[in-house]
Specification:
Distance between the termini: 54 Å
Structural class: alpha+beta
Helix content: 10-25%
Strand order of the largest sheet: 1-2-3
Number of strands: 3
Oligomer: single chain
């Protein structure tokens, strides 16, 4: 009885550690370049990218010196 309970507890703890340690991968990466003047956002158009399926690159370039505040309170560059 005690061994069964111990195995159950160890199994539950191991499951929690495995599931709790996964990190969400960022679909798009942001980089600010040229002393903060431009921001590049790059990623795949269709996420997740699957081998053998048609996909494309999603590239957005924002001039941060011309950015205006977003009306909805979001990112002023228009990037997600």
């Amino acid at each position: 009885m005690q061994r069964t309970l111990l195995r159950f507890v160890v199994g539950v703890l191991a499951s929690i550690l495995v599931l709790g340690s996964t990190q969400h991968a960022s679909a798009h990466e942001r980089r600010t370049v040229l002393n903060g003047r431009y921001q590049f956002v790059v990623g795949f158009l269709n996420e997740p990218a699957v081998s053998g399926e048609v996909n494309s690159v999603d590239l957005r370039v924002s001039d941060l010196t011309q950015a205006t505040p977003a009306a909805d309170g979001g990112d002023a560059t228009g990037a997600p």
